[in-house]
Amino acid sequence: MPQMSPRLDRRVTFERQGAGRNALNEPTGAWESLATLWAARTDLTETERAAAGQIGAVRAARFTLRRSDLALGLTAADRMKVGGHVWNITGVAARGRWVDVLAVSTGRKEEA
Predict the structure, then answer these.
(1) In sequence order, which ranges of the chain are alpha helices (DSSP H)?
(2) Are 104 and 97 in contact (CB under 8 A)?
(3) What range does the domain containing 93 cover?
(4) 86: which of 23, 57, 61, 80 lies 20 to 30 Å off by Cα?
């Protein structure tokens, strides 16, 4: 039986931090938008969260995107916003014509 395509029903904005470092060599640049794409969201089970080392008061999810150069170029240094919430990317994996982006969020609306 052929695998069904994921339902791409969420708008996800990917961001990358701009150049700039402080005296401790920490990034200080403003977050800049890379693109807004359609994605499907799947919340991770407790077993998947534990395997990813994400225990505690965080949400963990997999966002599935159509394969593209932009999606393949995402890294853990990037972040995304979904419905006003900030998600930190923890992993990116290509899977056929799809790209899975694993991310965690504490539920905050904006990062200071």
Answers:
(1) 46-51, 69-72
(2) no
(3) 10-105
(4) 23
What is the reported pTM?
Answer: 0.78
Nearest to 110 by CA among 82, 79, 83, 86: 86
Average pLDDT score over residue span 20-48: 82
Q: Between residues 70 and 58, which one has the greater pLDDT?
A: 70
Q: What is the pLDDT of residue 46?
A: 60
Q: Which residue has the tokens 């990034």?
A: 27
Strands 31-43 and 59-66: antiparallel
* 46 φ, ψ (degrees, to nearest 5): -60, -35
Report how far Cα 37 is from the mean position of its chain's Cα atoms: 12
What is the domain-level CATH number for residue 62? 2.40.10.270
